[in-house]
Predict the 3D structure of the following.
Amino acid sequence: MSSKPFFRFHPEAYEHGVFDASDEACSACGKPCVWKYNQHIYALPPEPTAICSRCIADGSVAKVVPEGDYGLHDFELGGETSEALAVEVEQRTPGFCHL
Ligand SMILES: [Zn+2]
């Protein structure tokens, strides 16, 4: 996978500054992050120290958080949203900068 995956629900994620260029090892895949996620990951503690853009894109964050349960946003989709779509938005789309 590319080190700079595209997020269809947040196409300007890199421009929005939610990733930092970093060679820190990713907590989930163990490889240098390249693009390290700098926003909050909503999960039970301990929070992963470093997560790369690839692991956000493919959902690998679930491997390193308790019970595999986490979210990248402080909201949940409601209504008629399909479960697959909700998972993509809540767990595989980078959060928006809280300025
Ligand atoms: Zn990773």
